[in-house]
């Protein structure tokens, strides 16, 4: 009836999933125990959680099976995992590695049965302990491969390792994770996508997904970069905005002399005064994402309409 | 007579209030610094749980979580004046939503009842 990862958990009549986990000695955090604080968040990987255990979660979280064990009285069998469990590692083979900019590469890998939503991220495992998260720019219905845009760091371990890889080499992937994807957006809603650097990868995935699903509302994509080279999909996005009347691409080169800071966040905040009803996607460094999230929220955008993915640097 | 939570409109009232309330708190120069660097998504869930409790809704309030959550802030100088400011913003939020004065006072009284836990006294 109830399974936690691979072990079976006894569920007594009238008992919540949280109570059952605790009785089984599983370390499950909780706080309000009434379905509000979301501290106990877990994920259903097999079965359907009762709707009342998903109240207050985003459409994206619901679509991925997230639920609140403290208010979950299961009516059918469930198998659940911790919210950050990325599942088993799968084999992947490198299909292509190509430069997109002097410090950005496009990595395409083949992996069987890797289901994901464009804009989610995966864990790329090069050697035993060498693992990094990368967002997916590919579309599962159009592309037979998984595509990532990766910034190379001079002294980064993964960057150096990627420099040695060639097509045909094997590595592993796990996941996907993340809720920054096209879900819970109205077809006519205005879509605002803002990213810096390789934060473009998930936004590009979301943009393609939106178009594929027949999104009708206006779409504006801001991409920020420190130099012209960094606007690595410039030509493609310009071409796309010429053929799709409702797509507006705004490349933003860093301008240190601009009064408001001159980065993509400043440009977008200046250009987007009326955002109250837009669906907003934010991807890039932590500072950029936090700043935009807060400023748009203060301008009256509901957090339900802000999806984001902040990249955190690692060695 | 329906209880406070029912009179306010239950879960829908919490949903209507939570973002309004949190915007007021972040815009209040007296207390905004305590929320620097805090993730808004996680905060909204926490504020929702606080409002549900303050509205007299279903909760399992023990005080321990409230104490732990604010320990770090007390060390940074959180005091009675900041708690006053939060309750003031809560009052403004409820008035904006057209809640009658009687219920506004009841909510303020519940919020005030956790003051010692928040301030770790």
Overview of this protein structure:
The complex is a heterodimer of chains A (315) and B (121). Chain A has seven helices and 16 strands. The model of chain A has no long low-confidence stretch (mean pLDDT 93). Chain A has helices at 17-23, 59-63, 157-164, 200-212, 234-243, 264-271, 286-298; strands at residues 2-4, 7-9, 42-46, 66-67, 78-81, 90-101, 104-110, 121-127, 130-135, 146-151, 170-177, 191-196, 219-225, 247-253, 279-285, 306-311. Chain A has a six-stranded antiparallel beta sheet. A five-stranded mixed beta sheet of chain A has the order 2-1-5-3-4. In chain A, strands 14-13-12-15-16 form a five-stranded parallel beta sheet, with helices on both faces. Chain A folds into three domains: 2-81, Ubiquitin-like (UB roll) (Roll); 90-177, Translation factors (Elongation Factor Tu (Ef-tu), domain 3, Beta Barrel), CATH 2.40.30.10; 191-311, Nucleotide-binding domain of ferredoxin-NADP reductase (FNR) module (Rossmann fold, 3-Layer(aba) Sandwich). Chain A has 315 residues and is α/β, with parallel strands linked by helices. The termini of chain A are far apart. With 121 residues, chain B is mainly α. Chain B has a single domain, classed as Globins (Globin-like). Chain B has seven helices and no strands. The longest helix of chain B has 18 residues, at 10-27. The radius of gyration of chain B is 14 Å and the shape is globular. Chain B starts with a helix and ends with a helix. The interface between A and B is medium-sized, with 17 and 24 residues.
